[in-house]
Design goal:
With 325 residues, this protein is mostly helical. 66% of the residues lie in helices and 0% in strands. The chain folds into three domains: 1-182; 186-288; 289-325, no CATH class. α4 (60-85) runs parallel beside α6 (131-154).
Length: 325
């Protein structure tokens, strides 16, 4: 009866726009892109030394630094997701302040994960050997990239600087009650979820490295810098056919990335099946029982488990009809 006296503009503030676009693939699934593309870069760049070799030789510092660019790829994905998220929220201080802090942190991380590569590449190209300083920079850059990639892959972007809505501030009390009130998982369910995804990604990362990346190392070594001789075309001359190996290698990189994504789905199906079977046995169900029998027995099970008492036996006894054909 007092709803007409509530100042709704002060009780609630809008946190998003009701619109849908392909930008949501970047904003809502940024961790999926980080996990796959960044790790694919780590794997492939480490096994592609011929791509970033200088004068036919590659140094340990350049290998560390080129591999560490996977962290820069992960940071760049997060920056693009943050910039896209600005278009989905009202430009108020409550909304943009959180995104602005995140964007500033991501820009600093981007400088730490890709900046040393420029110095190492210049030093290695000019002097031929950057010395211990270049090697130390490459190693430090790599470990910063690994930490940043793990942070972006595990922590939701909305909680990167703490969960504002879950705080004790009364400013977000309405959101805690209405728009951000989610039930929490019990310890057993949360532990099962952790184990499931640990097994999925653990098997996926191991299998992808040995069966996708390692097998790709030798073709990269051979095809980098390869030029086709004695070819020409009426319209394009020898510009296309001479670089056919480079075009083929690019397509192979892209196809390997697609297979890298598909491996995750494969291992999810495998382990999800194992967990489903285990869950069925823990509930006392047989995996060989047809769904038809489960549904036809449901009235009898309800009667036996819930309604079967001495004083209700006659009244609620289910009627079972036998049809003879």
């Amino acid at each position: 009866m007092k709803f007409d006296k509530v100042d709704w503009n002060r009780a609630f503030f809008k946190t998003y726009y009701e619109k849908r676009s392909f930008g949501h693939l970047l904003v809502n699934f940024n961790r999926i892109w980080v996990i796959h593309i960044a790790l694919y870069w780590f794997y492939t760049s480490y096994n592609s030394p011929a791509v970033y070799s200088i004068n036919g030789t590659h140094s340990a510092a350049m290998t560390w630094s080129a591999t560490a660019l996977g962290g820069a790829i992960a940071t760049l994905i997060m920056i693009l997701a943050t910039l896209t998220e600005f278009s989905y929220i009202p430009t108020t201080w409550n909304n943009t302040s959180h995104l602005s802090r995140r964007l500033l942190f991501l820009l600093v991380t981007l400088g730490l994960t890709c900046g040393p590569t420029f110095y190492i590449a210049i030093v290695e190209r000019t002097s031929g050997a950057g010395g211990s300083l270049a090697l130390i920079l490459g190693i430090v850059q790599f470990f910063i990239s690994v930490v940043a990639t793990l942070l972006f892959a595990i922590l939701p972007s909305g909680r990167m600087f703490g969960d504002r809505v879950a705080g004790k501030s009364r400013k977000y009390l309405a959101s805690q009650t209405f728009t951000a009130s989610y039930p929490g998982l019990h310890f057993e369910a949360r532990l099962a979820s952790f184990i499931l995804w640990f097994l999925v990604f653990g098997c996926k990362f191991t299998e992808s490295y040995f069966f996708l990346t390692i097998s790709f190392r030798d073709p990269i070594q051979v095809m980098v810098g390869m030029k086709v001789q004695g070819c020409t075309d009426k319209f394009f001359g020898n510009a296309l056919c001479r670089n056919q190996a480079a075009f083929t290698l690019t397509i192979m990189y892209i196809m390997d990335l697609v297979l890298f994504f598909l491996d995750t789905f494969l291992w999810y199906i495998i382990w999800n099946t194992v967990f489903s079977i285990g869950r069925s046995f823990s509930l006392g169900l047989s995996i060989w029982t047809p769904w038809k029998d489960i549904y036809t027995r449901l009235p009898k099970r309800i009667y036996a488990k819930i309604l079967a008492t001495s004083d209700m036996e006659v009244k609620y006894k289910p009627k079972v009809r036998h049809i003879f054909v």
